[in-house]
Amino acid sequence: MGSGTTGISCIKTERRFIGIEKDKGYFDLAKSRISKAKKENVETLFSDLTLSS
């Protein structure tokens, strides 16, 4: 899983992924980066919508 770059790319392109990492340091780094990307993706997911009544 390394630093999570593939997981982040999958989130941005709305793909699913499975990450496997044996080194705890890289796992923690990837987990943090992927969590941040998920939050950012939710914020931009609907940015092009226009609300009207």
TrEMBL record:
Keywords: Methyltransferase, Transferase
GO molecular function, one term: N-methyltransferase activity
InterPro entries: DNA_methylase_N4/N6, SAM-dependent_MTases_sf
Biological process (GO), any one: methylation
Domain DNA methylase N-4/N-6: 1-31
Gene3D superfamilies assigned: Vaccinia Virus protein VP39 (3.40.50.150)
Protein name (record): DNA methylase domain protein
